[in-house]
Amino acid sequence: MTDAALQRPTPAWAGEERLRQRATAVDPARTAPRLAFWMLAIFMVLEYLRPPGLVQFKLQMLVVFLLPVMWMMSRERPWTSILTFQALFLAWCVKSLPIASNWFNVYFTSRMMYANVAIALGFTWVGSNLRDLRRLLWLWLALMSYQAVFALTHGGRGTGGFLGDENDLALACGTALPFALAGFERLRGLTRWVLGGVVALTLLGIVASFSRGGFVGLMLCLGYLFVSSRQKLRSLAAIAAGCLIVYASASQEYIDEMYTIQNTDDGTAKSRRFLWTAAYNMWLDHVILGVGASNSPLLIGRYQPTDFEGREYNERDWSGLVLHSAWLTLLSEHGIGGVLIFVGMIATQFSTIRRLRRDVRARGDVPDDLRRQVESFGIGVNAAIISFIGSGTFLSVLYYPYLWYFTAFAAALDLAVRRELAQLDRPAPQAPATA
After folding, report:
1. Where are the alpha helices (DSSP H) in 59-153?
2. Between 252-259 and 212-228, two packed helices, what is the crossing angle to 10 degrees?
3. Are 125 and 83 in contact (CB under 8 A)?
4. pLDDT confidence of 434, banded at 50, 70, 90?
5. Engineered SS bond to 392: which of 130, 234, 326, 348, CB 3.0-4.6 Å?
6. d(CA 377, CA 420)
7. In 127-165, which ranges are continuous DSSP H helix?
8. CA trace torsion 337, 339, 341, 343 (10° rounding)
9. pLDDT tens readout for residues 333-351
C-alpha cells in the first residue's frame, strides 16, 4: 500500500463506525474493580428484594463499610459537588448530637445517612463506567418490577422494611417508572418494549397501593416528562397509554380515594395540616439549626396548635407521631441551614444533567445510541427526583435513600458520558506506513 493510499479520506460510514467503537471503549485503569460492582449489586438485591433468611444477616452493613474503604484505596477516586452536598448534610445531622432533646435518634439517623452517602459514593464510583451504570439501572428496574408484582398479590404492600407500607411501595414504583418511560420514548428495538412492560408493571403497582402521595408523584413526573420531551406527540401518546392502563386497572374505590386529595378539612388531610402547623411552630423556635434529626416527633406536643376545632386536636397530646411530610420534617429538624444544603444538592443535580445534555447536543460526532442514552437517562433521573419530591410532600421519607441514590446516579452519568466524549476527542491511531 502506498503513502498516497494511506492519506485518502476514510469513507463516512467507516468513520462513524470508528467513532462508535471509540465512544464505547472502556479504560480499565479508570474504572472501579469488579468486586465493587458486585458488592453494590448484592446490596441492592438484599435491600430491595429482602430474601427471607439472608436479610437477617445484615450483609448490607458489610457493604456499607467496605465500599468507602475500597474507594479510598483505589487509584481512581471520583468525587463530585453532589457528593460534597451529601457529605455536608450528613455532617449537619451529626452536628445536632449535643443540642437535640434525644441524642439517640440523632445517632440512629446519622448512621442511616452515612449508609446513604456510602452507597451513593459506590454508585458514583462504579457508575462512572457507562456499561456498569446501565447494568445497575437495569437491576433497579428489575427489582422495582418485582416489587410491583409483589404488591399486586399482597394488597398493595412491598416485601418489607421501608417498602412494606403501601405509600412506600408507591413511592418506590414512582421513582422507577420515569426511567422506564423515558427509555420507552427514546430507545429502540427490544429494549423499548421491555421498558414498556416495566412501565405497565410499575403503574399497576402504584394503583394497587391506593396511595394518594404516590398518585401526586406520578402526575408530577408525567408532567415533567411531557414538558421535557422534544417530540411532544410521541410523549403524549406514551403518557396517554399509561393513563389508559391506570384507568383500565383502577377500581371505583381507587378513583374515589384519589378524589379525596382535594378534601383538606376532614380526615387525614386535616390531621396532616395539624401536624404541619406544629412543625412550622417548631421551626420558628429553631430557625437556623432545627430541633435535630428525628427529634420532631418527640416535640410535637409542645408545639401543636390550639386553634383547631375538635376534641382530638385540643385534648390529645400528638407527641410520637411523624409529620407526614419530608419537607416539613426537613424544615423543623434541620432549620434553614439544612434546607440550603438539601436544595443545593438537588439544584446541583439538575444543573449537572442540563449541562451534560447541552454539551452532548452541541457535538456532531456523538453516536446516536450514546445520544439517546444521555437523553433517556438524564430525563429519567430528573423525573424520578420530581416524583420523589411530589410524593414526599405527604410522606415522612426525608431519610429514605432514593434522593441520595438518584443524585449520585446523575453524577455518575455525567462522569461516564464525559469519559466517552474524551474517547471521541482522542486521535485515531495511525497505521504504520508500509512499502
Report:
1. 59-73, 81-95, 103-126, 130-153
2. 80
3. no
4. low
5. 326
6. 15
7. 130-153
8. -150
9. 999 999 999 999 999 999 9
301 inside domain: no
DSSP 179: H
CB burial of residue 359 (10 Å; 0-12, 13-18, 19+): middle
Residue 19 falls inside a structural domain? no
CA–CA–CA angle 230, 233, 236 (5° rounding): 100
Pull the grid cell for residue 396.
415522612
What is the pTM (predicted TM-score) of this model?
Answer: 0.85
d(CA 38, CA 36): 6
Report if residue 286 sits inside a domain: no
CA-to-CA distance for 350 and 7, rounded, in angstroms?
45
The pLDDT-based confidence of 306 (bands split at 50, 70, 90) is: confident
- Give me the domain span that covers residue 88: 81-265+322-425
How many independent structural domains does the chain possess?
A: 1
The DSSP secondary-structure symbol of 207 reads H
Over the Cα atoms of the chain, what is R_g?
Answer: 24
Question: Is 309 part of a structural domain of the chain?
Answer: no
CA 388 to CA 385: how far, in whole Å?
A: 5
CA distance linking residue 211 with residue 206, whole number of Å: 7
Report the C-alpha dihedral over residues 110, 115, 118, 124, rounded to 10 degrees. -110
